[in-house]
Each structure stands twice: as structure tokens, then as C-alpha cells.
Amino acid sequence: MSGLSLDKLLKKAENKLQNVHEIVQEKSYELIRQAYKESIFVVITEGFRSIEQQHKLYSKGRATPGSIVTNAKGGYSYHNYGLAFDIALLDDNGEVDWTIDRRWKKAGEIGKRIGLEWGGDWTSLKDYPHFQYTFGLSLSELRSGKKPEKQTEKASRVLIEYGGRGNHVQLIQRMLIHLGYSLSGGADGIFGSSTLKAVKAFQQALYLQVDGIVGPKTLEKLYRNFNKTMF
Ligand SMILES: [Zn+2]
Question: Which of 7, 48, 66, 189 is the most exposed place for a label (fewest CB within 10 A)?
């Protein structure tokens, strides 16, 4: 395997996932991670597509030259709402390899295991590279302006903040210490002012929103930076 580190794949993905819903982003990172364990190298080729871009794409092979690439008009694709992404698979040399083989099926299975819908299951026009997460919203609901929750029910999501205690707190403290942030009480499992300061410093350093709360984005960055220093 020629230098195709997981970290590299995750970084590549990050660039393509701008304006994609953060929960969908998390799922795509999870897909990349789990596929990597099976020696399947996933890159994201496209995430958010504006309605205007979708119109242009739809015109291709219809009003403009070329062959038809989509049946979805502007506003008729989950990409237009930041709820879909497309992948490609790389071979061992890091080249895109479009051979539809068992790796694609496996990638589809992994995606479905983490709650995504896979275009490879579609009956009319199979779209192997495509994954989406709809939050139960139809395209017509989305077109009429309905939006998925920014954060799904908070209860099921980890939010670690000032005043919190327990294993979650201890875990992030360990990572912060490992990353060079000093905590007066060490990894004591209590989210006090020194932990708050460290979290804010970390968020600032990584251009995250500096709110001192460890939500999904901060947690993801913590894990990623921590893992980077482990290998
Ligand atoms: Zn797609």
C-alpha cells in the first residue's frame, strides 16, 4: 500500500465535504474509516451541489452537448441540500478505479450499516458512488424549505461541557494532555475551568467555533489529532 494513510483519506474528504450537513459528514468519515479496515480506499468526489450547478448538470445531454449524467433537475437531488455525497475507490497505487467489483458492494454495505442510503440499491438507475442521509425528509419537503435538525436529538449525542463529569470528560482530558495542553487537575474526569480553557485553546488552534463545548466537530478533531500522534 503506497502511502495511502487513513489520515490522508480523511483529509482529502474534508475538502470535498464543505456545506455538507455535519451528521452526514460524520457518517462519511465513518464510512472511510470502516472501509479502510477492509483495505478499501474511499475518496469523496462530490458533496454539496448548488441548485444552479444541478441545473447545469441536468442540461448536459439535453440543452447542452454531452451525454446525460443525471435525471435530477435543480432541487431534485439530495446533493442540493448537503445531504448526499459521492465516492470513488482508489486502487493500491492511489489511482481511481471504477471497476465495479466486490469492493463497491462492501462499501455499500458499510454505508448502510451506518445508516446511509446507497445508490447501488436503486432499481431504476443504479448509482454506485452515491450515498445519502435524508433525515426522513422527502425532496419536496426540502424544496418547500423544510430543514433537518442542525443537531439531532441532543440526548443521543455527546456534548461534553463545563460542569460535566465522568468517563467522557476523562477521555477528552487524556487526549488534550497528550496533545500538549496542560490541565491543572490532570485527567480527573471533572470539566472545570482548566479543561474549559484547554478546549477553547484547542478549538482556536483548529479554527473551530470557540465555545468550549466538545460537540461532534471538536470531538472528531480531537480524535483525529490524537490518532495522528499515535502512529
Ligand atoms: Zn450522488
Answer: 66
